[in-house]
Amino acid sequence: MKAFNDLADFTTEELEALLELAGRLDTHPEPEALKGKVLSLLFLSPSLRTLASFQAAMTRLGGGSFVISPDMSIHGLETRPGIVMDGSAAEHIREAVPVIASYGDAIGIRAFAERKNLESDLAETEFSALTSLIDTPYINMESAMGHPCQNLADWKTLDDLGIPANGGKFVLSWAYHPKALPLAVPASTLYTAARRGMDVTVLRPEGFELPEPLMQKARGAAESAGGSVTETNQRTKAMEGAHVIYAKSWSSTKHYGDRLGDQALRNELVDWCVDEPWFDNAREDCRFMHCLPVRRGVVVAERVLDGPRSVVIQEARNRMLAQMAVLHQMLGSGS
Ligand code: CP
After folding, report:
1. Taking the complete model, does pTM exceed 0.85, yes or no?
2. Are 45 and 146 in contact, with CB atoms under 8 Å apart?
3. How far is the CA of 26 from the centre of ligand 1 (A)?
4. Which of 143, 248, 291 is the best mutation target for the ligand 1 pocket, counting ligand atoms within 8 Å of the beta carbon and taking the most?
5. pLDDT for position 309
């Protein structure tokens, strides 16, 4: 495997093999599988789970890892192309990325969306610029529109819970958050649930429609896998018979890159906090999913997050197992 960037790059058989391997590595550890291998981890955006789970994954497989981020004691990191570097940063990513990559056998890169220009973010301009600087295998640890490690972990969580693929009803719901957040998780989660063959409903207020190219990609995946994709702003209708609600806040696409426009729209939507009445006409055992971090009492009520519906900790642990499977296939003896 040369890259783990988007689940759409893999056949269903390949994804099933990764999921099977993730489960096997949990029950049958392979502590020497990646002996002597090194994973470079470049975080241009913050993290808790991704950072810790990749380090844990490499250690459990017998390899090692190191982390570089702009917050560390480095020489400042300039990312803008064509810049005259007469400010505080003394290091440019054009040198830093290939240097970091040269110390490892593979590199993981996290770079959130700039959220200035939707077309540029949809085209993954920044992430592609970073990966064009290296020739080692790479892993997308979250880019403008993708979070494939989260997606693989969430797919495993759905499997672990016995939630059906075909016939399973998955609600991807916008939730209130005081800030405009990136589209990576909603975009790639939508694709993942559709690709799994589920009946997916995007529940979102007006102004927070997901961009049409993302909806089209998901509709195509659902069609091939025997599922469906619909969208609505009607909560009761969306939740009818739902097996799972996956909550996430995201930026207004209507006001993308316009902080004040987005803010004015979202200020009216503080009641989009997932709470128990949301589940009134869902299945009794409807689950609550979220990639974390999550703001308690803002995105979701504490009684849901701490209650039996919530599977957020399972999702987070599955990050480590899913990534172990990816690393095993990317760096293991059979790679
Ligand atoms: N879900 C997730 O990627 O968490 P972090 O941002 O903490 O890595």
Report:
1. yes
2. no
3. 21
4. 291
5. 98
Atom 4 (ligand 1): residue with closest C-alpha?
49
CATH topology identical between 3-147+316-331 and 162-310: yes
Q: How far is the CA of 9 from the centre of ligand 1 (A)?
A: 22
**How many Cβ atoms are within 10 Å of 144's Cβ, its own excluded?**
23
The ligand 1 atom nearest the CA atom of 292: 1
Mean pLDDT by 10 residues, the chain (335 residues): 98 98 98 98 97 98 96 84 93 96 98 94 97 97 98 98 98 97 98 98 97 98 98 98 98 94 96 98 98 98 98 98 98 87
Nearest ligand 1 atom to alpha carbon 53: 8
- 230-250 residue pLDDT tens: 999 999 999 999 999 999 999
List the chain domain ranges: 3-147+316-331, 162-310
**Cis, peptide link before residue 98, omega less than 30° from 0:** no
Please give the pLDDT value at position 74. 76
Q: Which residues line ligand 1 (CB under 6 A)?
A: 47-50, 142, 150, 291-293
Ligand 1 atom 6: residue of nearest CA: 47
Task: Give distance in angstroms: CA of 281 to centre of ligand 1.
Answer: 31
What's residue 75's pLDDT?
Answer: 85
Domain spanning 162-310, CATH class: alpha beta
Q: Torsions phi, psi of 325, nearest 5?
A: -65, -45
Inter-axis angle of helices 12-27 and 312-331, nearest 10: 110
Task: Kindly give, in sequence order, each residue whose CB lies less than 8 Å from that of residue 54, ignoring residues fewer than 6 positions away.
Answer: 39, 41, 65, 108, 141, 323
CA-based nearest residue to 291, from 155, 127, 91, 150: 150
Between the CA of 237 and the centroid of ligand 1 the distance, in Å, is: 30
Q: How far is the CA of 263 from the centre of ligand 1 (A)?
A: 24
Query: CATH assignment of 3-147+316-331, given 3.40.50.10330, 3.40.50.1370, 3.20.20.70, 3.30.70.2740?
Result: 3.40.50.1370
Atom of ligand 1 at shortest range from CA of 45: 6
